[in-house]
Amino acid sequence: MQVNWIVAIFVSLTDSSSRLRQILWRWVYNKIASRDVAGKFVFMNYGYNNDKEEHLQLNNQDESFRYYIQLYNHVVKDVNLRDQNIIEVGCGRGGGGSFLLRYKNPSSYTGIDLSDAAIEWCKRQYQFTNARWMQGFADALPVNDSSVDVVLNVESSHCYPSMEGFLKEVKRVLRPNGYLAFCDIRRSSGIEALDNNINALGLHVLKRYEITSHVLNALDQISPTRDSQITSIFPPIFQKAVRDFAAVKDTAVYNMLKNGQMQYLCYLLQKNQE
What is the residue-wise DSSP string for 104-150? Predict the structure, then answer.
């Protein structure tokens, strides 16, 4: 299969540590926000589906977002969020934050994203009294030192110019014994570097495992809907590239996950007692 040139740039940027990557992704997400006035892309992750896990009970209003929500639910399944102060880095258009606030009952939630258009959307769309939405960057979080119990990061870190910079910020804002729960895609050749970054920062790895097969399972289910959404929102010249970004079934990124060139990993890390 021929890889779209825009996707080729995307794949190369997932392995680089450049500020260009941040600029590119900010442009992409602002462009999506400007075109998706109907709110079809309130979730932008690849989803998660494991038939062997207990069925997640959702309200009727959330059923159409099941697979995206299941990824959020899986990433935080080993952390009790009730009455905790949590931040989500890379909150996008707030679908995950809305789920966490309504189902997990944190004391407070702060959603942070590099896209100012996405943050403005969240401020208009969600009226939770214990939530706030802030534009900011992963390597310069607008959060006080040692003020957060849990940092959540879902399918966002591959966009960052510096994973080391992000992890340093996570360590700074977490309280002692606080958690970082995150999941993301990586080129298989880049996973060792990711693990080295984590180990160098002294964050204790409680869990680390691959969930690629369960992400592919979800992509198989959501691809027809996502494909039709892309067709309705984006002009033809961009549709193929957006399908690849979204890992619609049988596109370049989907096939890289399927053949092992890319992996989808899930981590639970803890800051040590100081």
Answer: T--SEEEEEES-HHHHHHHHHH---TTEEEEE-BTTB-SS-TT-EEE
